Amino acid sequence: MRHEIHPDPQTLGRAAGNEAGDYIAGAIRSQGHARIVIATGASQFATLACLVARTDIDWSRVECFHLDEYVGMDDRHPASFRRYLQERFVSQVKNLGAFHGVAGDAQDAQGECARLGRLISTRPVDVLCLGIGENGHLAFNDPPADFTTKEPYLIVDLDEGCRQQQFGEGWFPTLAAVPKKAISMSINQILAAKHLVASVPDQRKAKAVQGSLEDPISPHCPGTALRRHASCSVHLDVASASLLRPTRSAANRH
Questions:
Q1: Which domain holds residue 39?
Q2: What gap in Å lies between CA 87 and CA 77, rounded to an integer?
Q3: CATH assignment of the domain containing 56
Q4: What is the mean pLDDT of residues 236-254?
């Protein structure tokens, strides 16, 4: 795993978006198609804006999955991640080959996990975009995360820190309105992608960044799992990198 420190969130987003775009274009050139996973949340705004601006990608050759969705939530809700991606990605690129949304409002949530698992297991994911949560989570794998399951998607409980983050980012009117369960891509499925590109801006992520890059690899800080991946880049800004050891920060500043 490597990390890069950028001066601000917009520069971070352009770097991450262009890196992910290069991987997508490369996969299409080499194999005729690309499989991707796109992340959501406030941390991904600039990254997605850069990615959808790429004119060199034949989006009709791209199959897209996403990381997670709240259990019981339909895609009309303002906090729905399916709605987020429809508005910020799917509707913004030309002729996307396929988009496999996580149906949080499926009558059988476990059946929805199985459906997605069958779809994503047919061939490898070429590039996966993600963030790191304020509590160190990857997707909705809150600490202590399940580092052992081989299931591609699973139902998870959202901890207080995660729910506070969703409320704090303005997706819900009250903390009580934030759901307590979600369907999430598993840690091992995330790590199965060929390339990982993480966008992690803002001071509120600084402690999670420090833990993910410097603490022992442990389910108690799910972000540490990224260090097990051979092709993972973590894009930071000055604020999110502010708690890193000085030698680590200086060596990776861009």
A1: 2-236
A2: 12
A3: 3.40.50.1360
A4: 79
Total tally of structural domains belonging to the chain: 1
Per the domain annotation, does 54 fall within a domain?
Answer: yes
For every residue of 145-212, DSSP letters joined together read P-SS---SEEEEE--HHHHHHHHHTTSSSSGGGS-SEEEEE-HHHHHTSSEEEEEE-SGGGHHHHHHH
Length of the chain: 254
Query: Tens digit of pLDDT for each residue in 196-236?
Result: 999 999 999 999 999 999 999 999 999 999 999 999 999 99
| CA 82-230-150 angle, 5° bins | 55
pTM (two decimals): 0.94
CA pair distance 190, 147, nearest whole angstrom = 11
Instruction: Specify if 223 maps to a domain.
Output: yes
Residue 242 lies in a domain: no
**Residue 37 belongs to a domain:** yes
CB half-sphere exposure, 98, CA atoms < 13 A: 9
